[in-house]
Amino acid sequence: MEKIHILTDSSSDIPHDLVEAHGIEIVPIMLTHEGRSFREYYDITSEDYCRLLETSSEIPGTAMTTPTVFLESYNRAFERGCTHLLAVLINGGGSGTYQAACLAKSMFEEEQGEGKMTIEVIDSKTYSLGYGFPVTEAARMAQNGVGYAAVRDYLLDWVDTAEVYFS
What we know:
Blueprint: E1 4-9, H1 16-22, E2 25-27, E3 30-33, E4 36-39, H2 46-55, E5 61-63, H3 67-79, E6 84-89, H4 97-112, E7 118-123, H5 129-143, H6 148-161
Helix pairs in contact: 3-4, 5-6
């Protein structure tokens, strides 16, 4: 039987209640501001971040998630008996997070052996809820017993055909 683990990064902006309801893992993007570091989603909320932007003369910086953080996530999923893992991440053209997840996949396969758990790392090609929405839908599908191939195909179709407009 397939056991699918779905993860994304904190830039997907999925509300906490949906993350909890659908068992989505959020890997944090690191924020730095005035010498302090925060894990986006866990240490600072979107509202806190907006207040920070409004009240500070310094714009917070970001740092991509490291391969080690992804590798730890993959290993946790594997230890829980997951057979498949889908990682949908922030636009690879604007962040190194996607590449870090790909590197972690190679590291996982070296450590555990190739084929021990299927890992698909997907470049969302977009930002924010532009990929947060399909991640939530994919998690719902997996919870309802939809198989890995169908969930993966849904995500791949979404990132290849969706258009997101910001205003």
